[in-house]
């Protein structure tokens, strides 16, 4: 759109120049106005059009190289203009030192790892997948900034159906004698994830695909329709694996094989290697109800969780609250936001638009307390990581994002250990019923 406008505006500019006598001081303002207009239009092209095309293919490498030094703001900010507001920048991400050292041996910097996590959060593609592609991509040089690269990889995967469910053809599909064009489209058993990765580098062929797959064992699952060849683990493989593991630990707060124990007669979900902590004593009014007017409409605290009859989680770590019509979800305590955005954590068992709050410790008990809120509606997030919030502040509207089958709030109260998510889950109803 900016290009079309600039075309006609350039014609106007040309006409203006013909009408105005050269060096007429009386018309200096006109010159300035025209100059400003041209400058603005050029800025628009630089800010919007160039980064967009730079993501489309390698042929614009040279243009990108030429334009880069003149970009008035950083590449990250430029992307934000294009794709809307994102809560995650590489600076928000913590990477363990050991991982940084291991990555450095492969020429990856801490910033590269941070970029992969940030891009993963923004595009909802697992960070280790993006890093895997990044390591293997033959066109890294096209971007100045690894964050832009990672982000572009994530977006490409997203746009090409990486997150789509696999297409499964019915077993008894009759093969037509004469194949019409529509029939060919009807059922082709290609995993969209496979297709998405190939789309990043179509000329790379299957050898390139396999080299991507080789960098992480996690590919074997999602890419079920692809034959994975044997490979020798190498340094890159270790980086992707360690990276994946460190992410899991960072997001987890405790291990996945959690167990339910009773502490002072009350249920607490803990990791196997964590000493259970009793329910913190809080004064009256310390907690407010995060979703006023709601009641338990799904899993209660400690319930086993099933998916199509298969046990997927031994103990539901929070409560599922619902009410007709949905509505605002509010902070249950005074504190600081330690997470605000998309999350899909198996270990925390929370997904979709998620907010986590580290509550201010109550005067009555030094045990750290955190609260987690899941499945917020798209586009309704009201807080950012690091915000100070008061009990009752609007966090998001209840939604159906993530692993969810109806508008509800997944609310989890976690205690002990500290950190952004604390260590172990206790029954929220003990505090908000
Ligand atoms: Zn739940």
Describe this structure in words.
This protein has 433 residues and is an alpha+beta fold. The chain is 35% helix and 16% strand. Strands 1, 2, 3, 6, 8, 9, 10, 11, 13 and 14 form a ten-stranded antiparallel beta sheet that branches. Strand 1 and strand 2 (266-270) form a beta hairpin. Helix 2 (28-54) crosses helix 3 (61-67), helix 2 (28-54) crosses helix 4 (75-83) and helix 6 runs parallel beside helix 8 (146-159). It is globular. The termini are far apart. 33% of the residues are buried. Bound molecules: zinc ion. Zinc ion (ZN) binds next to loops. The site of zinc ion (ZN) has 6 residues, from loops.
The CATH homologous superfamily of the largest domain corresponds to Glucose Permease (Domain IIA)
Largest sheet: 10 strands, antiparallel
Helix content: 25-40%
CATH architecture of the largest domain: Distorted Sandwich
The overall average pLDDT, rounded, is 71
The kinds of small molecule bound in this structure are:
zinc ion
| Quaternary | single chain
Low-confidence stretches: 1-25, 53-60, 70-87, 181-185, 216-233, 248-256
The number of domains: 3
CATH class membership of the largest domain: Mainly Beta
Shape: globular
Order of SSEs, N→C? Answer: HHHHHHHHHHHHEEEEEEEEEEEEEEH
Strand content: 15-25%
| Distance between the ends | 54 Å
What is the total tally of β strands? 14
Number of helices: 13
Q: Report Rg.
A: 26 Å
- Give the structural class: alpha+beta
Q: CATH topology of the largest domain, anyone?
A: Glucose Permease (Domain IIA)
């Amino acid at each position: 759109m900016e290009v079309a406008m600039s075309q006609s505006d350039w014609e106007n500019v040309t006409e203006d120049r013909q009408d105005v006598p050269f060096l007429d001081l009386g018309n200096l303002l006109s010159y300035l106005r025209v100059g400003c207009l041209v400058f603005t239009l050029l800025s628009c092209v630089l800010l919007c059009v160039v980064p967009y095309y730079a993501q489309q293919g390698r042929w614009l490498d040279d243009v990108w190289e030429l334009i880069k030094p003149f970009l008035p703001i950083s590449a990250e900010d430029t992307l934000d203009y294009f794709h809307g507001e994102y809560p995650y920048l590489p600076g928000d991400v913590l990477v363990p030192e050991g991982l940084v050292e291991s990555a450095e041996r492969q020429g990856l910097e801490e910033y590269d790892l941070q970029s992969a996590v940030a891009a993963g959060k923004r595009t909802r593609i697992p960070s280790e997948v993006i890093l895997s592609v990044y390591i293997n991509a033959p066109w890294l040089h096209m971007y100045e900034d690894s964050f832009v690269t990672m982000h572009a990889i994530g977006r490409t995967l997203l746009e090409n159906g990486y997150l789509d469910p696999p297409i499964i053809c019915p077993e008894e599909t009759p093969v037509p004698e004469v194949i019409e064009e529509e029939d060919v489209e009807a059922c082709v058993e290609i995993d969209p994830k496979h297709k998405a990765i190939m789309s990043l580098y179509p000329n790379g062929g299957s050898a390139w695909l396999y080299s991507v797959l080789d960098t992480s064992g996690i590919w074997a699952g999602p890419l079920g329709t692809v034959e994975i060849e044997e490979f020798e683990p190498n340094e890159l493989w270790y980086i992707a694996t360690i990276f994946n593991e460190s992410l899991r630990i960072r997001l987890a707060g405790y291990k996945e094989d959690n167990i339910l124990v009773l502490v002072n007669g009350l249920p607490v979900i803990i990791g196997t290697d964590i000493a259970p902590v009793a329910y913190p004593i809080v004064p009256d009014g310390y907690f407010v109800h995060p979703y006023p007017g709601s009641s338990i409409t799904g899993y209660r605290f400690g319930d086993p969780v099933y998916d199509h009859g298969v046990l997927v989680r031994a103990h539901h770590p929070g409560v599922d609250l619902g009410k007709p019509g949905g509505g605002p979800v509010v902070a249950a305590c005074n504190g600081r936001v330690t997470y605000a955005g998309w999350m899909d954590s198996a270990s925390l068992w929370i997904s979709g638009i998620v907010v986590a709050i580290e509550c201010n410790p109550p005067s009555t008990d030094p045990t750290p307390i955190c609260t987690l809120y899941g499945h917020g509606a798209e586009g309704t997030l009201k807080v950012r990581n690091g915000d100070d919030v008061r009990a009752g502040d609007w966090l998001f509207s209840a939604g159906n994002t993530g692993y969810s089958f109806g508008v509800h709030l997944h609310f989890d109260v976690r205690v002990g250990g500290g950190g952004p998510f604390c260590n172990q889950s206790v029954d929220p109803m003990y505090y908000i019923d």
